[in-house]
Design brief:
mainly alpha; Multidrug-efflux Transporter Regulator, Chain: A, Domain 2; 6 helices
Length: about 140
């Protein structure tokens, strides 16, 4: 399939596809007229790349993860080491999700109080937020 067809099939822009190709994440054959020709597996690979990017994976890690997802075997060693990094990213995402849920709950409490005519202050102090998120809150001017 040509680059436009692959773009339509995956939702990735032609520019992104050329970028993925420059990184070696996908490959194409050049036709005599210079057009790129991708095989049918490229659409699945691009879908995997987009999913990993959406999850926050850097392209440098995607380069190492992709062979482990495609059954082609690892490029630089074993997939176990890569799996450890992926697990670390998953754990970081989980921690971020927990912080977002806590913040959402605080905002919901605030909205409930203000809509019921109650106090208009959020009861959580900066220290409460830090304790709940286990992350220092930026000070004014930071």
């Amino acid at each position: 399939m040509k680059i436009g067809e692959l773009s339509s099939a995956t939702g990735a822009s032609p520019r992104s596809l050329r970028y993925y190709e420059s990184l070696g994440l996908i490959s194409s054959r050049r036709q005599p007229n210079g057009y790129r020709e991708y095989d049918s597996s490229a659409a699945e690979t691009v879908g995997t790349i987009k999913s990993l990017l959406d999850l926050g994976f850097p392209t440098s890690l995607i380069e190492r993860v992709l062979p482990c997802t495609a059954g082609a075997g690892p490029i630089e060693g074993d997939c176990a080491a890569i799996s450890e990094r992926v697990a670390q990213i998953r754990d970081e995402m989980d921690a971020k999700a927990q912080r977002l849920l806590q913040t959402r709950d605080l905002l919901s409490d605030y909205l409930r109080e203000t809509s019921s005519g109650g106090p208009t202050q959020i009861h959580a102090t900066r220290a409460d937020l830090q304790r709940r998120t286990r992350r220092p809150m930026p000070q004014k001017g930071e």
